[in-house]
Write a structure and sequence with these properties.
With 61 residues, the protein is mainly alpha-helical. It has one domain. It has three helices and no strands. The radius of gyration is 15 Å and the shape is flat. The protein starts with a helix and ends with a helix.
């Protein structure tokens, strides 16, 4: 996936999250949980896009 596509998708995700945080009335605790879930999902997606997720699966602890 080209880097420009990744950057555009990150900007879109950020704008959507900002819109949700500012314009949808929610309790502060729910907003915090939504932000954490989106952050974890984006980090996992980025690891997968850059091929680091598959290399982490091969590590035996």
């Amino acid at each position: 996936m080209p880097l420009l596509n990744v950057l555009v998708q990150l900007v879109v995700i950020g704008v959507v999250l900002w819109l949700v945080n500012n314009y949808i009335p929610m309790d502060g605790k729910i907003k915090r949980v939504v932000n954490i879930v989106v952050l974890v999902a984006v980090v996992i997606w980025l690891l997968n896009v850059f091929g680091l997720l598959s290399s982490l699966k091969s590590i035996n602890i």
